[in-house]
Amino acid sequence: MATNSSEKRQSAGNSRPNKLSKMVEKMRRDGFGESPSKKLLKQFCESTSAHGFHKIFQGSSILHRIVWLLIIITAFSGFSAHLISLFSRFNEGPVNTEISVYSTNFVFPDISICATSHFSLRRYERNPKIRSLNKPIKELVSDIRSFWDPNNESDSEINGDLLNSLKSYLHEVNITKQSQEMILHCDFAGTICSYINFTEYIDPNYFSCFTFSPRERHLLVGGERDGGLSVIMYVGDMMNFISEEDSLRYSKGFRAVIHEKGTRPEMLEGFYVQEHACTYVQLGYTEEVVLRKCAEEESLQPLEFVDRYGKVTQYRYSVRDCQVNLYQNFLNESCRCVSEILPLPAKFRNITRHNITFCHHINEERLKQSRGAKSNDSSSVREKQECHDNAINEIHKQVSAKKTKKDSYCPLKCNNTRYEMRVMQNKWPNDANETRQALWEATQRTMHEARSRGDSTEVLEEIMEHLKNDPYALQRFAKLTVYSHSTMGNIVRENWAYLARNLASDIGGILGLWLGVSIISTFEFFELFIQLFSVRRKENQQLQAASAADAELA
Protein backbone atom coordinates (compact mmCIF):
# COMPACT_ATOMS: atom_id res chain seq x y z
CA MET A 1 0.00 0.00 0.00
CA ALA A 2 2.78 2.35 0.96
CA THR A 3 4.58 1.54 -2.23
CA ASN A 4 1.60 2.29 -4.44
CA SER A 5 1.00 5.59 -2.68
CA SER A 6 4.60 6.64 -3.23
CA GLU A 7 4.43 5.77 -6.94
CA LYS A 8 1.26 7.83 -7.42
CA ARG A 9 2.84 10.88 -5.79
CA GLN A 10 5.92 10.50 -8.02
CA SER A 11 3.86 10.23 -11.22
CA ALA A 12 1.78 13.28 -10.20
CA GLY A 13 4.98 15.23 -9.55
CA ASN A 14 6.32 14.30 -12.97
CA SER A 15 3.12 15.36 -14.70
CA ARG A 16 3.17 18.94 -13.28
CA PRO A 17 6.33 20.09 -15.20
CA ASN A 18 4.92 18.63 -18.39
CA LYS A 19 1.68 20.59 -18.00
CA LEU A 20 3.59 23.78 -17.07
CA SER A 21 5.85 23.53 -20.10
CA LYS A 22 2.84 23.01 -22.33
CA MET A 23 1.19 26.13 -20.88
CA VAL A 24 4.34 28.21 -21.41
CA GLU A 25 4.63 26.96 -24.97
CA LYS A 26 0.98 27.85 -25.60
CA MET A 27 1.50 31.32 -24.08
CA ARG A 28 4.56 31.83 -26.26
CA ARG A 29 2.62 30.85 -29.36
CA ASP A 30 -0.25 33.15 -28.40
CA GLY A 31 2.07 36.06 -27.65
CA PHE A 32 1.56 36.03 -23.87
CA GLY A 33 4.55 37.20 -21.84
CA GLU A 34 5.31 40.01 -24.31
CA SER A 35 4.60 43.65 -23.50
CA PRO A 36 1.48 45.06 -25.18
CA SER A 37 3.58 47.57 -27.13
CA LYS A 38 5.87 44.89 -28.51
CA LYS A 39 2.93 42.71 -29.38
CA LEU A 40 1.27 45.61 -31.19
CA LEU A 41 4.42 46.34 -33.21
CA LYS A 42 4.75 42.68 -34.17
CA GLN A 43 1.17 42.51 -35.36
CA PHE A 44 1.64 45.73 -37.36
CA CYS A 45 4.80 44.53 -39.10
CA GLU A 46 3.15 41.21 -40.03
CA SER A 47 -0.02 42.82 -41.39
CA THR A 48 0.98 46.21 -42.88
CA SER A 49 0.94 46.80 -46.63
CA ALA A 50 4.29 48.62 -46.40
CA HIS A 51 7.16 46.64 -47.92
CA GLY A 52 9.81 44.89 -45.85
CA PHE A 53 8.49 45.40 -42.32
CA HIS A 54 7.18 41.83 -41.94
CA LYS A 55 10.69 40.46 -42.58
CA ILE A 56 11.84 41.82 -39.21
CA PHE A 57 9.72 39.15 -37.43
CA GLN A 58 9.34 36.51 -40.13
CA GLY A 59 12.91 36.19 -41.33
CA SER A 60 14.50 32.76 -41.71
CA SER A 61 17.24 33.55 -39.18
CA ILE A 62 18.25 36.15 -36.63
CA LEU A 63 20.95 37.49 -38.99
CA HIS A 64 18.37 37.85 -41.75
CA ARG A 65 16.09 39.80 -39.41
CA ILE A 66 18.92 42.08 -38.28
CA VAL A 67 19.90 42.84 -41.88
CA TRP A 68 16.33 43.85 -42.71
CA LEU A 69 16.11 45.96 -39.57
CA LEU A 70 19.27 47.85 -40.62
CA ILE A 71 17.89 48.31 -44.14
CA ILE A 72 14.66 49.82 -42.80
CA ILE A 73 16.55 52.09 -40.37
CA THR A 74 18.75 53.30 -43.24
CA ALA A 75 15.68 53.91 -45.39
CA PHE A 76 14.07 55.94 -42.59
CA SER A 77 17.26 58.00 -42.26
CA GLY A 78 17.34 58.71 -45.99
CA PHE A 79 13.65 59.59 -45.96
CA SER A 80 14.14 62.00 -43.03
CA ALA A 81 17.09 63.76 -44.69
CA HIS A 82 15.21 64.04 -47.98
CA LEU A 83 12.11 65.37 -46.18
CA ILE A 84 14.16 68.04 -44.37
CA SER A 85 15.66 69.19 -47.67
CA LEU A 86 12.17 69.50 -49.21
CA PHE A 87 10.88 71.63 -46.33
CA SER A 88 14.03 73.74 -46.44
CA ARG A 89 13.47 74.47 -50.13
CA PHE A 90 9.81 75.25 -49.50
CA ASN A 91 10.71 77.72 -46.73
CA GLU A 92 13.25 79.49 -48.97
CA GLY A 93 10.44 80.39 -51.35
CA PRO A 94 12.27 80.03 -54.70
CA VAL A 95 10.80 81.95 -57.61
CA ASN A 96 10.86 81.85 -61.40
CA THR A 97 11.21 85.13 -63.27
CA GLU A 98 9.03 85.57 -66.33
CA ILE A 99 9.72 88.37 -68.82
CA SER A 100 7.04 89.32 -71.32
CA VAL A 101 6.43 92.15 -73.78
CA TYR A 102 3.04 93.79 -73.97
CA SER A 103 1.31 96.90 -75.26
CA THR A 104 0.93 99.55 -72.59
CA ASN A 105 0.04 103.16 -72.01
CA PHE A 106 3.43 104.72 -71.45
CA VAL A 107 3.57 106.58 -68.10
CA PHE A 108 5.83 109.61 -68.38
CA PRO A 109 8.25 109.99 -65.44
CA ASP A 110 9.43 112.97 -63.42
CA ILE A 111 12.60 114.66 -64.72
CA SER A 112 14.96 116.66 -62.49
CA ILE A 113 17.76 118.94 -63.74
CA CYS A 114 20.67 120.54 -61.86
CA ALA A 115 23.48 122.85 -62.96
CA THR A 116 26.84 121.19 -62.41
CA SER A 117 28.41 124.54 -61.42
CA HIS A 118 26.67 124.38 -58.01
CA PHE A 119 26.48 128.18 -57.61
CA SER A 120 25.89 131.35 -59.58
CA LEU A 121 29.20 133.10 -60.11
CA ARG A 122 27.35 136.38 -60.53
CA ARG A 123 25.75 136.10 -57.06
CA TYR A 124 28.98 134.95 -55.48
CA GLU A 125 30.85 137.94 -56.88
CA ARG A 126 28.37 140.26 -55.16
CA ASN A 127 29.78 138.93 -51.90
CA PRO A 128 26.56 138.81 -49.81
CA LYS A 129 26.82 138.63 -46.02
CA ILE A 130 26.16 135.66 -43.79
CA ARG A 131 23.69 137.06 -41.27
CA SER A 132 24.63 134.99 -38.23
CA LEU A 133 28.34 135.76 -38.68
CA ASN A 134 27.97 139.28 -40.10
CA LYS A 135 30.64 138.22 -42.53
CA PRO A 136 30.78 138.33 -46.36
CA ILE A 137 30.67 134.97 -48.03
CA LYS A 138 34.11 135.37 -49.61
CA GLU A 139 35.60 135.90 -46.18
CA LEU A 140 33.72 132.87 -44.88
CA VAL A 141 35.09 130.76 -47.73
CA SER A 142 38.61 132.00 -46.98
CA ASP A 143 38.26 131.15 -43.27
CA ILE A 144 36.88 127.70 -43.99
CA ARG A 145 39.65 127.15 -46.52
CA SER A 146 42.27 128.12 -43.95
CA PHE A 147 40.70 125.84 -41.35
CA TRP A 148 40.87 122.74 -43.51
CA ASP A 149 44.18 123.58 -45.15
CA PRO A 150 46.35 125.86 -42.94
CA ASN A 151 49.29 125.38 -45.29
CA ASN A 152 47.26 126.51 -48.32
CA GLU A 153 47.78 123.25 -50.16
CA SER A 154 44.94 122.74 -52.62
CA ASP A 155 43.60 119.33 -53.60
CA SER A 156 40.23 117.78 -54.38
CA GLU A 157 39.75 116.38 -50.87
CA ILE A 158 40.20 119.80 -49.27
CA ASN A 159 37.78 121.30 -51.79
CA GLY A 160 35.19 118.70 -50.85
CA ASP A 161 35.53 119.50 -47.15
CA LEU A 162 35.25 123.21 -47.91
CA LEU A 163 32.05 122.68 -49.86
CA ASN A 164 30.54 120.52 -47.12
CA SER A 165 31.38 123.10 -44.45
CA LEU A 166 29.89 125.86 -46.59
CA LYS A 167 26.60 123.96 -46.93
CA SER A 168 25.71 124.50 -43.28
CA TYR A 169 25.61 128.29 -43.87
CA LEU A 170 23.83 128.33 -47.24
CA HIS A 171 20.39 128.58 -45.65
CA GLU A 172 21.30 132.19 -44.81
CA VAL A 173 22.31 133.29 -48.29
CA ASN A 174 21.23 132.30 -51.79
CA ILE A 175 24.08 132.14 -54.29
CA THR A 176 22.58 129.37 -56.41
CA LYS A 177 21.04 129.65 -59.85
CA GLN A 178 17.35 130.37 -60.34
CA SER A 179 15.04 128.46 -62.64
CA GLN A 180 14.58 131.28 -65.19
CA GLU A 181 18.38 131.51 -65.52
CA MET A 182 18.65 127.83 -66.44
CA ILE A 183 15.46 126.89 -68.28
CA LEU A 184 14.84 129.14 -71.27
CA HIS A 185 12.27 127.04 -73.10
CA CYS A 186 10.42 123.76 -72.80
CA ASP A 187 7.94 121.85 -74.88
CA PHE A 188 5.90 118.95 -73.55
CA ALA A 189 3.64 116.78 -75.71
CA GLY A 190 3.45 119.51 -78.34
CA THR A 191 2.52 122.23 -75.83
CA ILE A 192 4.88 125.07 -74.93
CA CYS A 193 5.82 125.30 -71.25
CA SER A 194 8.32 127.36 -69.27
CA TYR A 195 10.39 127.51 -66.10
CA ILE A 196 7.24 128.02 -63.99
CA ASN A 197 6.29 124.41 -64.75
CA PHE A 198 9.35 123.25 -62.80
CA THR A 199 9.46 122.95 -58.99
CA GLU A 200 12.62 123.53 -56.98
CA TYR A 201 14.38 120.62 -55.30
CA ILE A 202 17.32 121.33 -52.99
CA ASP A 203 19.86 118.58 -53.57
CA PRO A 204 22.55 118.00 -50.91
CA ASN A 205 25.28 117.94 -53.56
CA TYR A 206 24.05 120.06 -56.49
CA PHE A 207 21.94 122.54 -54.48
CA SER A 208 19.18 124.19 -56.52
CA CYS A 209 17.65 121.66 -58.92
CA PHE A 210 14.34 121.77 -60.76
CA THR A 211 11.81 118.97 -61.32
CA PHE A 212 9.29 118.66 -64.13
CA SER A 213 6.19 116.72 -63.05
CA PRO A 214 3.56 116.63 -65.82
CA ARG A 215 -0.11 116.41 -65.01
CA GLU A 216 -0.89 114.23 -68.00
CA ARG A 217 1.45 111.23 -68.12
CA HIS A 218 -0.25 108.90 -70.60
CA LEU A 219 0.99 110.35 -73.88
CA LEU A 220 1.03 109.59 -77.55
CA VAL A 221 4.18 107.67 -78.37
CA GLY A 222 6.37 107.75 -81.41
CA GLY A 223 7.73 111.28 -81.87
CA GLU A 224 10.03 113.64 -80.03
CA ARG A 225 7.43 116.43 -79.80
CA ASP A 226 4.27 114.38 -79.49
CA GLY A 227 5.54 111.97 -76.86
CA GLY A 228 7.97 113.72 -74.58
CA LEU A 229 9.74 116.73 -73.10
CA SER A 230 12.20 119.06 -74.81
CA VAL A 231 14.14 121.62 -72.72
CA ILE A 232 16.65 124.30 -73.76
CA MET A 233 19.00 125.32 -70.94
CA TYR A 234 21.64 127.98 -70.40
CA VAL A 235 24.94 126.79 -68.97
CA GLY A 236 26.00 130.28 -68.00
CA ASP A 237 29.16 130.73 -65.94
CA MET A 238 32.23 129.69 -67.87
CA MET A 239 34.56 130.00 -64.87
CA ASN A 240 35.16 127.67 -61.96
CA PHE A 241 33.74 128.64 -58.62
CA ILE A 242 35.93 130.60 -56.11
CA SER A 243 39.24 130.97 -57.98
CA GLU A 244 41.65 129.19 -60.26
CA GLU A 245 43.70 128.07 -57.25
CA ASP A 246 40.84 127.03 -54.96
CA SER A 247 38.15 125.89 -57.37
CA LEU A 248 35.35 123.38 -57.22
CA ARG A 249 35.93 121.67 -60.53
CA TYR A 250 33.03 120.30 -62.51
CA SER A 251 31.98 119.29 -66.00
CA LYS A 252 30.23 122.24 -67.63
CA GLY A 253 26.62 121.41 -68.32
CA PHE A 254 23.77 119.88 -66.40
CA ARG A 255 22.98 116.80 -64.40
CA ALA A 256 19.62 115.16 -65.14
CA VAL A 257 17.85 112.19 -63.62
CA ILE A 258 14.67 110.35 -64.59
CA HIS A 259 12.63 108.96 -61.71
CA GLU A 260 9.18 107.67 -60.82
CA LYS A 261 6.37 110.09 -60.12
CA GLY A 262 6.52 111.52 -56.61
CA THR A 263 9.88 110.00 -55.67
CA ARG A 264 12.91 111.98 -54.55
CA PRO A 265 15.45 112.47 -57.36
CA GLU A 266 18.87 110.99 -56.68
CA MET A 267 21.08 113.18 -58.84
CA LEU A 268 24.15 110.97 -58.47
CA GLU A 269 22.24 108.26 -60.38
CA GLY A 270 21.58 110.54 -63.36
CA PHE A 271 23.48 111.44 -66.52
CA TYR A 272 25.28 114.51 -67.91
CA VAL A 273 23.79 116.92 -70.40
CA GLN A 274 26.80 118.54 -72.03
CA GLU A 275 27.05 122.13 -73.14
CA HIS A 276 26.94 122.98 -76.88
CA ALA A 277 25.09 119.71 -77.56
CA CYS A 278 21.67 118.16 -78.04
CA THR A 279 21.08 115.20 -75.73
CA TYR A 280 18.35 112.73 -76.69
CA VAL A 281 17.08 110.19 -74.17
CA GLN A 282 14.95 107.36 -75.49
CA LEU A 283 12.97 105.70 -72.71
CA GLY A 284 11.92 102.11 -72.24
CA TYR A 285 9.24 101.12 -69.75
CA THR A 286 9.36 98.09 -67.46
CA GLU A 287 7.01 96.99 -64.70
CA GLU A 288 8.45 94.69 -62.06
CA VAL A 289 6.34 92.42 -59.84
CA VAL A 290 8.32 91.04 -56.89
CA LEU A 291 7.14 88.33 -54.49
CA ARG A 292 9.93 87.73 -51.99
CA LYS A 293 10.72 90.12 -49.12
CA CYS A 294 8.49 92.83 -50.50
CA ALA A 295 5.65 95.00 -49.25
CA GLU A 296 2.70 96.66 -50.90
CA GLU A 297 3.21 100.40 -51.31
CA GLU A 298 0.00 101.11 -49.38
CA SER A 299 1.61 99.60 -46.26
CA LEU A 300 4.82 101.65 -46.59
CA GLN A 301 5.02 105.08 -45.04
CA PRO A 302 6.06 108.04 -47.24
CA LEU A 303 9.44 109.57 -46.35
CA GLU A 304 9.99 113.20 -45.38
CA PHE A 305 13.15 115.25 -45.87
CA VAL A 306 13.98 118.83 -44.93
CA ASP A 307 16.08 121.13 -47.15
CA ARG A 308 18.54 123.81 -46.08
CA TYR A 309 15.74 126.41 -45.96
CA GLY A 310 13.73 124.33 -43.48
CA LYS A 311 11.12 123.23 -46.01
CA VAL A 312 9.80 119.71 -45.40
CA THR A 313 8.83 117.67 -48.47
CA GLN A 314 7.16 114.28 -48.51
CA TYR A 315 8.16 111.68 -51.11
CA ARG A 316 6.90 108.27 -52.10
CA TYR A 317 8.68 105.37 -50.44
CA SER A 318 11.85 104.03 -52.02
CA VAL A 319 14.48 101.64 -50.70
CA ARG A 320 17.19 104.24 -51.37
CA ASP A 321 15.53 106.91 -49.22
CA CYS A 322 14.74 104.41 -46.49
CA GLN A 323 18.45 103.55 -46.34
CA VAL A 324 19.35 107.26 -46.28
CA ASN A 325 17.28 107.52 -43.10
CA LEU A 326 19.12 104.56 -41.60
CA TYR A 327 22.53 105.94 -42.60
CA GLN A 328 21.83 109.36 -41.06
CA ASN A 329 20.64 107.68 -37.87
CA PHE A 330 23.79 105.56 -37.88
CA LEU A 331 25.97 108.66 -38.25
CA ASN A 332 24.07 110.40 -35.47
CA GLU A 333 24.63 107.45 -33.13
CA SER A 334 28.26 106.89 -34.13
CA CYS A 335 29.57 110.42 -34.67
CA ARG A 336 26.95 112.66 -33.06
CA CYS A 337 26.53 114.51 -36.34
CA VAL A 338 24.67 114.20 -39.65
CA SER A 339 26.08 114.18 -43.17
CA GLU A 340 25.89 117.11 -45.57
CA ILE A 341 26.27 114.85 -48.59
CA LEU A 342 23.04 112.95 -47.84
CA PRO A 343 19.48 114.26 -47.66
CA LEU A 344 18.41 115.25 -44.17
CA PRO A 345 15.44 113.36 -42.69
CA ALA A 346 12.69 115.63 -41.38
CA LYS A 347 13.26 114.40 -37.81
CA PHE A 348 16.51 116.43 -37.82
CA ARG A 349 14.87 119.69 -38.92
CA ASN A 350 15.83 121.29 -35.58
CA ILE A 351 19.24 119.71 -35.16
CA THR A 352 20.52 122.37 -32.73
CA ARG A 353 17.80 121.43 -30.24
CA HIS A 354 19.08 117.86 -30.24
CA ASN A 355 22.71 118.94 -29.78
CA ILE A 356 23.52 117.63 -33.26
CA THR A 357 25.57 119.38 -35.93
CA PHE A 358 26.65 118.69 -39.47
CA CYS A 359 29.82 116.63 -39.55
CA HIS A 360 31.79 119.39 -41.38
CA HIS A 361 30.27 122.38 -39.58
CA ILE A 362 32.75 124.93 -38.19
CA ASN A 363 31.20 127.19 -35.58
CA GLU A 364 31.65 130.92 -35.28
CA GLU A 365 34.17 130.78 -32.44
CA ARG A 366 36.63 128.68 -34.39
CA LEU A 367 36.21 130.82 -37.48
CA LYS A 368 37.08 133.92 -35.45
CA GLN A 369 40.29 132.46 -34.11
CA SER A 370 43.64 133.20 -35.62
CA ARG A 371 45.00 130.90 -38.26
CA GLY A 372 47.71 129.64 -35.95
CA ALA A 373 45.22 128.69 -33.27
CA LYS A 374 42.80 127.02 -35.63
CA SER A 375 44.97 124.04 -36.34
CA ASN A 376 45.38 123.45 -32.59
CA ASP A 377 41.69 123.83 -31.73
CA SER A 378 40.18 121.86 -34.57
CA SER A 379 40.36 118.39 -33.07
CA SER A 380 36.61 117.99 -32.41
CA VAL A 381 35.65 119.10 -35.94
CA ARG A 382 38.29 116.91 -37.52
CA GLU A 383 37.27 113.97 -35.37
CA LYS A 384 33.70 114.30 -36.61
CA GLN A 385 34.92 114.67 -40.18
CA GLU A 386 37.05 111.51 -39.89
CA CYS A 387 34.22 109.66 -38.16
CA HIS A 388 31.89 110.74 -40.97
CA ASP A 389 34.25 109.57 -43.72
CA ASN A 390 34.92 106.24 -41.98
CA ALA A 391 31.22 105.63 -41.41
CA ILE A 392 30.33 106.42 -45.03
CA ASN A 393 33.13 104.12 -46.28
CA GLU A 394 31.97 101.34 -43.98
CA ILE A 395 28.40 101.67 -45.19
CA HIS A 396 29.54 101.53 -48.83
CA LYS A 397 31.64 98.42 -48.12
CA GLN A 398 28.73 96.64 -46.47
CA VAL A 399 26.37 97.51 -49.29
CA SER A 400 28.82 96.45 -52.01
CA ALA A 401 29.60 93.20 -50.17
CA LYS A 402 25.87 92.64 -49.50
CA LYS A 403 26.59 92.11 -45.80
CA THR A 404 24.26 94.78 -44.53
CA LYS A 405 21.05 93.75 -42.80
CA LYS A 406 19.30 96.96 -43.77
CA ASP A 407 17.26 95.16 -46.44
CA SER A 408 15.14 93.69 -43.64
CA TYR A 409 14.26 97.21 -42.53
CA CYS A 410 13.87 98.61 -46.05
CA PRO A 411 11.77 96.13 -48.03
CA LEU A 412 11.30 96.29 -51.75
CA LYS A 413 7.98 97.40 -53.13
CA CYS A 414 6.06 94.52 -54.67
CA ASN A 415 5.26 96.61 -57.75
CA ASN A 416 7.94 98.83 -59.27
CA THR A 417 8.36 100.90 -62.41
CA ARG A 418 11.76 101.14 -64.06
CA TYR A 419 12.81 103.32 -66.97
CA GLU A 420 15.61 102.19 -69.28
CA MET A 421 17.51 104.96 -71.04
CA ARG A 422 19.31 105.12 -74.34
CA VAL A 423 21.28 108.38 -74.41
CA MET A 424 22.50 109.96 -77.67
CA GLN A 425 24.28 113.29 -78.16
CA ASN A 426 25.23 115.49 -81.08
CA LYS A 427 26.37 119.06 -81.60
CA TRP A 428 24.13 122.02 -82.23
CA PRO A 429 22.76 122.34 -85.81
CA ASN A 430 25.20 123.74 -88.35
CA ASP A 431 22.83 126.57 -89.28
CA ALA A 432 24.07 128.93 -86.56
CA ASN A 433 21.90 131.85 -87.62
CA GLU A 434 18.68 129.86 -87.43
CA THR A 435 19.67 128.35 -84.08
CA ARG A 436 20.69 131.74 -82.72
CA GLN A 437 17.32 133.22 -83.78
CA ALA A 438 15.39 130.40 -82.11
CA LEU A 439 17.35 130.89 -78.87
CA TRP A 440 16.77 134.64 -79.02
CA GLU A 441 13.00 134.15 -79.30
CA ALA A 442 12.94 131.59 -76.49
CA THR A 443 14.95 133.88 -74.19
CA GLN A 444 12.70 136.82 -75.01
CA ARG A 445 9.57 134.83 -74.09
CA THR A 446 11.15 133.77 -70.81
CA MET A 447 12.15 137.35 -70.00
CA HIS A 448 8.61 138.63 -70.59
CA GLU A 449 7.23 135.94 -68.30
CA ALA A 450 9.86 136.64 -65.61
CA ARG A 451 9.04 140.35 -65.66
CA SER A 452 5.33 139.67 -65.33
CA ARG A 453 6.04 137.52 -62.27
CA GLY A 454 8.56 139.92 -60.73
CA ASP A 455 11.49 137.51 -61.11
CA SER A 456 15.04 138.64 -61.83
CA THR A 457 15.86 139.18 -65.52
CA GLU A 458 19.49 140.33 -65.39
CA VAL A 459 20.88 136.98 -66.49
CA LEU A 460 18.31 136.81 -69.29
CA GLU A 461 19.44 140.26 -70.47
CA GLU A 462 23.02 139.00 -70.38
CA ILE A 463 22.01 136.00 -72.51
CA MET A 464 20.44 138.21 -75.16
CA GLU A 465 23.57 140.37 -75.19
CA HIS A 466 25.73 137.28 -75.73
CA LEU A 467 23.48 136.06 -78.55
CA LYS A 468 23.79 139.45 -80.20
CA ASN A 469 27.54 140.03 -79.92
CA ASP A 470 29.33 136.82 -78.92
CA PRO A 471 30.15 134.47 -81.84
CA TYR A 472 30.69 131.63 -79.34
CA ALA A 473 27.43 132.17 -77.47
CA LEU A 474 25.95 128.89 -78.74
CA GLN A 475 28.53 127.00 -76.69
CA ARG A 476 26.76 128.11 -73.51
CA PHE A 477 23.50 126.31 -74.31
CA ALA A 478 22.35 122.72 -74.04
CA LYS A 479 19.24 120.89 -75.17
CA LEU A 480 17.62 117.86 -73.57
CA THR A 481 14.88 115.79 -75.21
CA VAL A 482 13.24 112.86 -73.40
CA TYR A 483 10.72 110.66 -75.21
CA SER A 484 9.52 107.12 -75.78
CA HIS A 485 9.35 105.64 -79.27
CA SER A 486 7.25 102.54 -78.62
CA THR A 487 3.93 101.52 -77.10
CA MET A 488 5.44 98.20 -76.05
CA GLY A 489 6.62 97.69 -72.51
CA ASN A 490 8.16 94.87 -70.53
CA ILE A 491 6.82 93.17 -67.46
CA VAL A 492 9.15 91.20 -65.21
CA ARG A 493 7.04 88.99 -62.97
CA GLU A 494 8.13 86.57 -60.27
CA ASN A 495 6.13 83.35 -59.80
CA TRP A 496 6.53 80.92 -56.93
CA ALA A 497 8.61 78.01 -58.18
CA TYR A 498 7.80 75.58 -55.34
CA LEU A 499 4.22 75.60 -54.07
CA ALA A 500 2.55 73.54 -51.34
CA ARG A 501 1.17 71.12 -53.92
CA ASN A 502 4.72 70.52 -55.19
CA LEU A 503 5.84 69.80 -51.63
CA ALA A 504 2.99 67.32 -51.08
CA SER A 505 3.73 65.60 -54.39
CA ASP A 506 7.43 65.27 -53.57
CA ILE A 507 6.68 63.91 -50.09
CA GLY A 508 4.50 61.24 -51.70
CA GLY A 509 7.33 60.44 -54.08
CA ILE A 510 9.99 60.01 -51.41
CA LEU A 511 7.62 57.91 -49.28
CA GLY A 512 7.45 55.44 -52.15
CA LEU A 513 11.17 55.78 -52.95
CA TRP A 514 12.58 55.25 -49.48
CA LEU A 515 9.89 53.30 -47.59
CA GLY A 516 7.61 51.79 -50.22
CA VAL A 517 4.70 53.42 -48.44
CA SER A 518 1.40 54.39 -50.05
CA ILE A 519 -1.36 56.65 -48.75
CA ILE A 520 -3.07 53.58 -47.24
CA SER A 521 0.16 52.57 -45.51
CA THR A 522 0.58 56.10 -44.20
CA PHE A 523 -2.79 55.89 -42.44
CA GLU A 524 -1.75 52.50 -41.05
CA PHE A 525 1.27 54.21 -39.48
CA PHE A 526 -0.96 56.92 -38.03
CA GLU A 527 -3.24 54.25 -36.58
CA LEU A 528 -0.22 52.46 -35.09
CA PHE A 529 1.02 55.62 -33.38
CA ILE A 530 -2.43 56.25 -31.89
CA GLN A 531 -2.66 52.66 -30.60
CA LEU A 532 0.85 52.81 -29.14
CA PHE A 533 -0.01 56.03 -27.37
CA SER A 534 -3.18 54.46 -25.95
CA VAL A 535 -1.33 51.30 -24.80
CA ARG A 536 1.46 53.25 -23.16
CA ARG A 537 -1.09 55.40 -21.37
CA LYS A 538 -2.88 52.32 -19.98
CA GLU A 539 0.45 50.80 -18.86
CA ASN A 540 1.36 53.98 -17.01
CA GLN A 541 -2.05 54.03 -15.32
CA GLN A 542 -1.62 50.38 -14.22
CA LEU A 543 1.85 51.09 -12.86
CA GLN A 544 0.56 54.06 -10.92
CA ALA A 545 -2.31 51.97 -9.49
CA ALA A 546 0.11 49.17 -8.48
CA SER A 547 2.45 51.65 -6.83
CA ALA A 548 -0.45 53.13 -4.89
CA ALA A 549 -1.57 49.65 -3.73
CA ASP A 550 1.97 48.74 -2.58
CA ALA A 551 2.15 52.00 -0.69
CA GLU A 552 -1.12 51.19 1.15
CA LEU A 553 0.07 47.67 2.09
CA ALA A 554 3.36 49.05 3.34
Automatic annotation (TrEMBL):
A Gene Ontology cellular-component term: plasma membrane
Membrane topology according to the record: Multi-pass membrane protein
Pfam families from the UniProt entry: ASC
GO molecular function, one term: ligand-gated sodium channel activity
Regions that span the bilayer: 66-87
Residue spans of biased composition, Basic and acidic residues class: 1-10
Subcellular location: Membrane
Ranges where the record places region Disordered: 1-23
Family assignment from sequence similarity: Belongs to the amiloride-sensitive sodium channel (TC 1.A.6) family.
Protein name per UniProt: Amiloride-sensitive sodium channel
Species annotation: Macrostomum lignano
Taxonomic lineage of the native organism: Eukaryota, Metazoa, Spiralia, Lophotrochozoa, Platyhelminthes
